[in-house]
Every structure is written in structure tokens, then in C-alpha cells.
Design a protein that fits this description.
single chain; about 45% strand; about 220 residues; about 10% helix; Thrombin, subunit H
Length: about 220
């Protein structure tokens, strides 16, 4: 059902069954497991990359992609924090009946750089993505480009598939969050896809899982 070293995601909205409904998500990694607890790497904001200090007693919603490529989700509580070379959290392991195998997979997000073109209220521009999911993407905003939160734009993305073909997505999108330039990070914008057909969404999801599988295979080769 899970694999040590796999990427796990957390958020704090425990009242929803859909992890992507929460605006801020955190990325972590499963380090160890026993009958009662999981040990995970200190989570980091998935958009800013900044580590977050979760206090003991904090309720979280956890989800990850299992070895069978399905998405598993459960509610948990932070039990303690471990200090060491790799800062980590101990979280409660729920009973088996509390786990949920989630059918919707459009929120599985992968870090990937694909070519993008954006047409908004100001001058059109081309750029690349930082990450992509079936529900949206984050892209780099060039220095002279302008985007405003909640602005609606037209976006085109080009996805190189494993079989050598190219899949193109052209749809409207809403700018949900704009992150200003930081010391080592360019200005970025988080986009939600609008008016996208299920066929188009499935093509994006397929690309995400191909990239995730390729990254997992590469990591296994490095370990061996």
C-alpha cells in the first residue's frame, strides 16, 4: 500500500475528502513506519518550498500515490517532532478502516517543466511550468509579464509523452495565487484549469503519472 521513501502530501483541511480543495499543501517523504506511527520528513510548502514546523497535536490530512498508482488518503495527528540530521515528524498511524482509496486523481501534482503560452489582459507571454496536475499548474512569470490573482487567462501547454507524441492543452484558466520573486526563486503563478474536458484532463493526468513513474524508476536506480 505504501513504500518507504515515497512522497507524501499533507494539508490541514480535515473536513474535506478531496486533498486538492485546500489552498496550501505540504510535501513530505515517508521515512519509516511501525504498527502505530509513521515517520515523515519535515513538510515543506509545495509552492514556496519553505519547511513548516508542525506542532504536536496538530490534525492533518495525508495523501499519497501507492505502489498500485492509486491515491490513498487518511486523517492523522502529529505526535512529536524529531531533531536530527533530517528533521522529521512522528504522526499517528490510523486503523485500516480509516484509510480511503481515492478515485479522483486529478490533484496528483508532479514537478515538471513544460512549455506554456499565456494570453491574459496584458501582453501575451511564453514561459515554462514549475509543476502540473490534472487540475492546474504553477508557472514562472517572466519579469515583464503581468498577472493578477483571480484573473482569467487563456493558456496553452505542450506535454511530451513517453511514446514520443505531443499532447496539447488549450483552455481558460484562473490565476489563484501569485508568488513574488524571492532570493532563489522567480516570480510564479498558480493556475486552475477551467472549461477543460474530461478527455483533456485525463491526458494531463496520464502525463503526470508517466513523469511520476519515470522519477520513481530513476530513484530506484540511484539506490541500487
Amino acid at each position: 500500500m505504501y513504500e518507504i521513501g515515497s512522497v507524501w502530501h499533507l494539508h490541514e483541511n480535515i473536513n474535506t475528502k478531496e486533498p486538492h480543495d485546500n489552498k496550501v499543501q505540504y510535501k513530505s517523504q515517508l521515512l519509516d513506519a511501525d504498527e502505530n506511527t509513521f515517520t515523515i520528513a519535515l513538510p515543506a510548502d509545495q509552492e514556496t518550498g519553505k519547511s513548516i514546523s508542525f506542532q504536536a497535536g496538530r490534525a492533518v490530512h495525508v495523501w499519497y500515490v501507492g505502489e498500485d498508482s492509486a491515491v490513498y488518503s487518511f486523517r492523522s495527528t502529529v505526535l512529536s517532532r524529531l531533531k536530527g540530521q533530517i528533521p522529521a515528524l512522528i504522526i499517528k498511524r490510523p486503523e485500516k478502516k480509516e484509510w480511503q482509496r481515492v478515485q479522483r486523481r486529478n490533484y496528483v501534482r508532479v514537478d515538471t517543466s513544460v512549455n506554456a503560452a499565456v494570453h491574459g489582459s496584458s501582453r501575451p507571454f511564453t514561459t515554462v511550468t514549475v509543476n502540473v496536475s490534472g487540475g492546474g499548474c504553477m508557472l514562472i512569470v517572466p519579469p515583464k509579464a503581468k498577472l493578477m490573482e483571480e484573473e482569467h487567462v487563456q493558456i496553452t501547454l505542450a506535454f511530451p509523452m513517453e511514446d514520443g507524441s505531443m499532447q496539447y492543452l488549450q483552455c481558460s484558466a484562473a490565476v489563484r495565487r501569485v508568488l513574488e520573486k524571492e532570493e532563489r526563486r522567480p516570480k510564479r503563478a498558480s493556475m486552475e484549469f477551467l472549461e477543460i474536458t474530461e478527455k483533456e484532463r485525463q491526458a494531463v493526468i496520464r502525463y503526470c503519472f508517466e513523469r511520476q513513474r519515470a522519477a520513481a524508476n530513476q530513484e530506484k536506480r540511484v539506490r541500487s
